[in-house]
Structure formats: structure tokens, C-alpha cells
């Protein structure tokens, strides 16, 4: 189903704060969390900034959305998160949030925000992510998103999907890592059934964006990663 550009524009403008008009309708917002990552490397930084640069260009080219050429970094400690209807977060097997950030994330999502979760694998990383989300929404379960969910059809029809692997796994002849052999598309919904959190488990969509212009990464998987990401963005802007 094609979403008219005028409708997207109206809904995006409704998100903007009062005052000066922002230069673009949409900016790729990445969630920054924690202080130091494993081995002093911040885990939120995976695939940054190439993933957002490539994906933003594709989103601008393939839709009527006016997309900022550069992404932005946001923390749940600031009110500016409410300026962005779609936020991306990676490596959530290492996710940690303060009590204030947990409260702010819950408010952001219930007020209409959308969180895309990517690049985590295996049981141990799932347990850590599940633990954090149980603090954000102790009264809401994580559930499987069925293939007929609107989030998979809002622009591209994605009834059939396959695992999006990281490039290192592909170079080793696998589509999985850390024991996460099977891909899952899960979510947390609000009281009206809107997807607030889209969870891509045992997958690395950001790698497909980051390496979109490299021959080593299969074009078929890059195409699917772009379509899935675009669907998430359009869904976020229209719901």
C-alpha cells in the first residue's frame, strides 16, 4: 500500500516542536546508552555512522520523505528524544538504562515513539534485553509479530523475510552468530495494537546498510534490509 507523501508530511510536522521549522522531515536518530562498552568500546556505536548515512540516502531516494543526510545521536536523558518519532538502537545484549532513562523511554513510546532494535544474538543477549524491557514495561509482553502485521506491509509487502546476517558471519559461511541460528521479528504493542518496539533478534540489519556498496554483501539481503527499515520508518511516521 502506497502512503501519499502529503500524509507523511502532515504527520511528521505534527511531531515537530514549536519554534523554528527543522530543515528536514526526518533524521536517523540513534540511541546512545551507557558510559563505556565492552573492552572500552561503546556498543551503541556498531555500524556508526556508515549505516545511517547509507540508509538515509536510500530512504530519501525511495520515498517522498525529506531525509536529513546525517544521523543524530540521542540519549534518553534529554527531552530532545521527543523530536524524533523513530529511534534506532543496537547491541542491546549490553543495554543498560538508568531509572530516569527507563521512565523517559516508557513515556517516549507511549506518546507515539517507535524504537527499532537490531544487532543482538543468542540467549544471553536476549536475556539482558528482556530484563531491561521488563523494567520499561512490566505490564506488557514481548510478542511475535505475525507476517500479516501492518508493519510488514505499510509500504513494501514483506510477508516472507529471511535472516539478515552480519558481514563477518557471511564471510565465515554462516547467517548466524553467538548461537542465534533462527531469526525472529518481535514487538511490544500499545493498547491500540500499535507496534512501539520492533525487535529484530538474531539479525544485523545495520551491517546490511553499512556494507550496502560492497560486493561482499549480497544485494538480495541489502535490498531486504532497506525495505524492512523503510517500512519501520513509514509505519512510525503514520501511526
From TrEMBL:
InterPro entries according to UniProt: DUF4159
Lineage: Bacteria, Pseudomonadati, Pseudomonadota, Gammaproteobacteria, Chromatiales
UniProt name for this protein: DUF4159 domain-containing protein
Source organism of this protein record: Granulosicoccus antarcticus IMCC3135
Pfam families assigned to the protein according to its UniProt record, in alphabetical order: DUF4159 (PF13709)
Domain DUF4159: 28-237
